[in-house]
């Protein structure tokens, strides 16, 4: 498959996650299933709806079906979210620099997600769960607006029930039947035991939330190079040709979307970069 | 008294006080244990005390005119809940309820206010610490006001 | 490869040889008020005896006293329009009645072309586009094909444009590499000839078919002096020492707000700039809803929604968009593409800006108040 022209895939499942978000499972019409790294994305194309960059949210083990979680925000994503099982979709990719290679990374892993940001982090979580237990702890801190807007609820419950990871959820506001925390993600970070010298943090969510989270991590003594965040910019081609996704010297589609906070932090101080 | 004084180190906003000031403050405190669902304070009541949480979680709730209670915030071990005792008319703004068993130090507001009046340097120290606490709660509240997970307010698009 | 001399009256042989080798020759022609690039079959189609007057926001064609074939500087167009076309179809998709999808790459259009009269600045611009579109992880195959099918005939400028500063950017006026043939037009002492050199095998093949003869020392000397005179007559200059770092530490400089009060964000600069490569894509569906074309066209970082994300545009103000363009050309390009420069000193952006914003003036102003915050 060329990286310039989409390949036709069939949607085999389209499951609702929240009121405006769905998870699609897709299979190629011909050829091998997609091989990709956690944190990469593809360009998805519903006929006539234009291409949109969507993170891969499934298990990156080779040979798995392609799973991507899409929030219906504009014409392109709405067309994709309306595809039914059996309908076809164009897929181009995978693209981008994903999360650091977790099979190599030593020490504790702290995954911090906000809203839809759990989708690009879930592949990393699957990989983290496959590390030998003595490599370090895995902690997921996940925040959203309200409980109904959290993704992957059943899996979250399974993860929380399991001993494999520490999983803390927090929402901005909730009804009294929510038994989890109410507040902001940085307050979860403040309450989590962290060894700053050996912890790597993977962060993904709305940019404002990532800033607050990174500030909280830096305040706990984590080096900026140990904080990895997935950024989002206007990606039109995904291959570094169209120039739209540039942020400083970085092409987000090519040098990102995952960047280290040592690169991100100084640039955030520049308005409208 | 000394026992409470040692426990102050567990509380973020009361940590690192000079021993003399810590002793003064602990004179107004007592250990309490609350059961699941037990209220620490209720909206509309006179704010007689505040609580320094040692163990467990509390939920700050608002009961709107229509519908079930909303949870505004949850607080945990090390946090302090309640500052309406600092300002007239000393009126509690929200319901605060224990989730599961909660161990806390309950401080008598009038007792503390009296000691602050008598000893202004103690008063300044407490005001300074509580200002910081309120400021960081305000910051967190502003973060939620932004509704970062949703769409930006229509007027800003 | 040794230099040859081709007399003016034999210039037509070059066009003939190129046509016989199967090239469509693209060269300068007089258009409506400006020198444009288009097909050249006969020598008479070149802008003979024309020159240009250029300054900030100013371009006029004028008659020369002599019959020089290339007695002018660069016009608004550059060679990117042929290597990186303004519009093309990337792929097509078809949907059948049962919803099945088919995708087909569009065949690359890469006709054999000879680019006649490529200035040194534009040679450097082509090299810059090579860095941006070829020497990357996902090379642009169409660009590569068009590049491979283009024969480049450089022209060493005898006229320095009023906005030129290739000397400052070390990109001219004499072509050093990146061409198949290079010409220098020499007029003087009753003579009119071209010193011509081949720098590649395809160039040699063309040269062999001309009735040129090895150039004499005085002719080569005259050609060198043409370039020296041009170098001495630059209309602008740009201090490039530490420029990339200077701009990186002055991203909040008030000069960007000042220039934004004049800048119309019209994007003319990006249209005429020979290294600007940004594009936009769009889907066009036919009326029956059965086929869609995924088309690509030139775009400009000056457009308001260039940086559109959910929630708005990252670069909302004109100041931020001007800053993006300027710092990309003079600063971040160097980091992205291995120390090459995005600016080749052609001066087109200065000439074709409706309000005469001058990138060299902006850079100098920031340098003069390095670190200013208000």
* Multimer state: heterotrimer
Q: Please, what is the average pLDDT of chain C?
A: 96
Shape of chain C: globular
Radius of gyration of CA atoms of chain C, rounded to a whole number? 22 Å
Greatest interface: A-C, 40 and 49 residues
N/C terminus separation of chain A: 34 Å
Query: What's the rounded overall pLDDT mean of chain A?
Result: 95
Strand percent estimate of chain C? 15-25%
Query: Which of globular, elongated, flat, extended, rod-shaped describes the shape of chain A?
Result: globular
Number of helices of chain C: 12
The percent range for strand residues of chain A is 25-35%
Taking pLDDT < 50 over at least 5 consecutive residues as the criterion, the unreliable ranges of chain C are none
The level of helicity of chain C is 25-40%
User: Structural class of the helices, strands and pairings of chain C?
Assistant: alpha+beta
Number of E-type strands of chain C: 16
What structural class results from the helix and strand content of chain A? alpha/beta
Over the alpha carbons, how many angstroms does the gyration radius of chain A reach? 18 Å
Q: Name the strands of the widest sheet of chain C in spatial order.
A: 3-2-8-9-10-11-1-12
* Sheet having the most strands of chain A: 7 strands, mixed
Number of helices of chain A: 6
